[in-house]
Amino acid sequence: MIETFLMSFRLKNAYQTNGIIYSLKSIPVINRLLPVSLYRSPGLKIFANFVSILWEISSMFLGKMLYLFIIIFLLKDHMKSSPANSFMHMFFFLTITGGFLNTHIFHPTRDKYYAIFLMRMNAREYTLSNYFYFLLKIVVGFLPFTLLLGRLSGVPIVICFLMPLFVVSVKLIFTALALHDYVRTGHAKNENQLNPVALVGIAASLAAAYLPPFLGYAMNGAIFLALFVFSAVIAVFSFFYVLKFREYRSICKELLTADSFAMNKKSMAARAVQKSLQLNIDIKATSSKSGYQYFNDLFVKRHSMLLTKSAKDITLISLAALAFSIMACFLIHGAKPILNGMMLTILPYFLFVMYFVNRGKVITQAMFMNCDHSMLTYRFYRQPRAILLLFTERLKSILLINLMPALVIALGLPLLLWLTGGTNNALNYVLLFVSIIAMSVFFSVHNIVLYYLLQPYNIGLEIKNGTFTIVNSFTYFFCYFAIGKKVPTLVFGTLISVFCIVYIAVSLILAYRLAPKTFKLR
Amino acid sequence: MKLILNHVIKSFDKKEVLRGANFAFEKGKIYGLLGRNGAGKTTLFNCINEDLKIDGGSILLEENGVKREVCPDDIGYVLSTPVVPEFLTGREFLKFFLDINVKKIPDIKPIDEYFDFVKIGSEDRDRLLKDYSHGMRNKMQMLVSFIANPCILLLDEPLTSFDVVVADEMKTLLRQIKKDHIIIFSTHIMELALDLCDEIVILSGGILEKMEKDDLSNEAFKDKIIQALRKDEND
């Protein structure tokens, strides 16, 4: 079994390594520095191998540290119960949530498909050895942080030591249950497509994790210990069940069909796009336009479920939030000055909001998936004139779709400012309106220009362009870090509006100059 | 009219795919392009269609003794895997195509006539392309390549996905239109090439070579072609 594991580890490492080289090659400047026979070059292989192993190790620790730190450690101080009890209580129930979410065996991944079906490795040996490695990583990865953060919260040291073992116990129990379920129903559960029972379980365990400690009812050390011993006993039985189970190959066969594993690596959004693309084409829509306008018009209408409907939903939610805030002004004593102060300082926060409500990325994905990946094979569609005509049409559509919610927010904020007592400087009203609209236009333009300049997708909607990933992450982090920064609206509004206008102008010029060359299939 | 390839060179990284390919394809003939897997047939098509830039040589069109560059409107390229915009119906796709090419198509006919031409039934014309079968998508793709009436037609394994009846229809159709076109047809199926094509050209070792049938029997001609294709191994 150890041999199987080592083989599978080497296999995984090999394609992770090639994946790293591939990503390096797709970054423009670095690409030129790298030689052609890259995948053979031993030096680079060693480097990528090193990165790959580093990633394996850091993912073992980093994820678990962030998990403990962000959703347990930071929140414990907001609970009524003592920090130690809150920590244990949240850890207990969130571990159960984790049991529903990931048992490893029922998680369809590409490496499993390659190993079991392409390389014909023994399914049971492969699954079990990787499963035990997964459990080992849990113990090693969790222990330092349950000790560190647990002790900082005042959790008894014995419990800190037992916590990782508790996670392992829960994983074993859930795995055994799922295997037993497979024997009973003949159906393997797929952890990328959660069933209703699992969803209810996740919701219930999440509620159980946070509500009781918030209200002051968290478990203490004694209860945690008792529950641990209880679960550990069941886990021992589960362990033998998992070990003796024989039908791993048939489970893998069901999980790792072409479409379930192919979908795995994609983000939820991309998957949703692909799914709704196949389902929600509105055949009844028609258009009276002609040429490229006709084409784009039908595209937008046929995909209205995907494109305009969510923008309308967001508009409604924004309206509701606005109505709620207005009501709060009049009904809750003391809300007015707080809201007034907010209107004058929290504009940076709206950078993230506007980033979040913008549909640009989904729209470009839909454009690619259901239109461009086929149309770009036609030569007439790739003529500079055609690309630019359609770009203009699409830019209009994308702007209009995103302006719906943006208008509500852009009018709502100055309205709130006025209702809560106004301001001495009338420029604030204007800036609130202008900067929200500017941000909306900015994100719309940003998304479509990036799409036309980098065209990052392959047919599976996987992103195959390092630059695109970098620019996107940078945009996200920039917006994310704007949260919580209190800058006077006068300053931030002016800066962001100017920035947006300049950016929009520059990127549109770039798009019109370069898109005919860059907009193509990968 | 002739399509003249003059010492066309194309390589990827260090792999030379086309090593100075020379050939003159003439109007009124269907050329069967044969080559082994990876010999570069699709690369050659992509070069003619300017999807790929050639590294050396030239690809020119000779009309009444005057040579000129090949422009996009000269070429219709039918890919082996048909790709069509799934969110449109067959009729809408054609309407869109006619709309944007209105100036280039000399005598635009009613849309239904085009459907009749490739024998797509009236019940299928208003269905979404995503619900079309592989063969029907391929017909649509061929249709839009024919409508604009380009003088050069590049067909990359176009008949393999059709059932025998449709394949026969398409063969008839290609024979009908060949007098006004230069048709280059790549395939792996020797019988098809011998049956449909007027000339057999093989791509081997990065160069193009015309296979003369002389007065060989079909069997002997086949052997000759296979021998020529085998050369690739010995190189």
Largest sheet of chain B: 6 strands, mixed
Please identify the structural class of chain B as seen in this structure.
alpha/beta
Low-confidence spans of chain B:
none
Helix content of chain B: 25-40%
Q: β content of chain B, as a range?
A: 25-35%
Task: Tell me the major beta sheet of chain A.
Answer: none
Given helix and strand content, the structural type of chain A is mainly alpha
Provide the succession of SSEs of chain B: EEEHEEEHHHEHEHEEH
Cα separation of the termini of chain B:
34 Å
Strand order of the largest sheet of chain B: 6-7-8-3-9-10
Low-confidence stretches of chain A at least 5 residues in length (pLDDT < 50)?
Answer: 261-266
Largest interface: A-B, 25 and 25 residues
CATH class of one domain in chain B: Alpha Beta
- The CATH H-level superfamily of one domain in chain B is P-loop containing nucleotide triphosphate hydrolases
